[in-house]
Amino acid sequence: MESNDSHSLSDFVKACHTVSSLPDFRSTIYGQLQRLIPHAMFAFGTVCLSNLILKQSLNINFPTGYLGPNTSQACPEIRQWVREERPLYIGLNDESSSHSSSPALARHKIRNLAVHGVTELNRKQACLFLFGGVDAFPEEVEDRLRLVTPHLYFALAKIGDFDSAPGQSLLTKREAEILEWICIGKSNSEIGMILGISPWTVKIHVSRTIEKLNASNRSHAIAIAMHQGLIEV
């Protein structure tokens, strides 16, 4: 590893061991991570090893349809990693790939996917990191993944309950309020009358909430929000 790369890795490790919040992670560590592993898309989440359910925590630019709404069924590369528990590199039509490309990657136009993670000691779940559009040679990607993943995991463990943090920072007071009214059976028109806004505005808020929570519909958004403690009903 070249001298500049060594310094970059050293700075990254120090940042991972001093991070205090998810916003801090995004503003400091993520920029360093992009320099160490150049990529266009990033996501991390916890996977239950018994049923392969992905509890997505942070998604930067990955198509929601690829990762799926809180399930790994739309993402065969996650299942592949769970079986092997080692760095994966999958490139579209790339002979240097460690595994063959899935139709899901082609459908969502994801080029050069790298995946690695850490399995928890209780063997009940793993924390996975996905990089899309990786711009490096496969051997270098694998080496970098092995180096940075343990420190990424340490940073997230230090932050604490990062699963609920993204939702709390994304939902506005009005979006949470509308979800609560939906929970008790109010229609868009009724909510609009209660809040003094148009039904169309209510619909826009609901659509944004569904997108922010990576939900498939309003009922799914409510379930996610309740699970993460974002609304009180």
From TrEMBL:
PROSITE patterns in alphabetical order: HTH_LUXR_1, HTH_LUXR_2
GO molecular function, a single term: DNA binding
Biological process per Gene Ontology, one example term: regulation of DNA-templated transcription
Entries under InterPro entries matching the protein: Sig_transdc_resp-reg_C-effctor (IPR016032), Tscrpt_reg_LuxR_C (IPR000792), WH-like_DNA-bd_sf (IPR036388)
UniProt keyword list: DNA-binding, Transcription, Transcription regulation
Domain HTH luxR-type: 164-229
Stretches assigned to coiled coil: none
A Pfam cross-reference name: GerE
Protein name, entry field: Transcriptional regulator, LuxR family
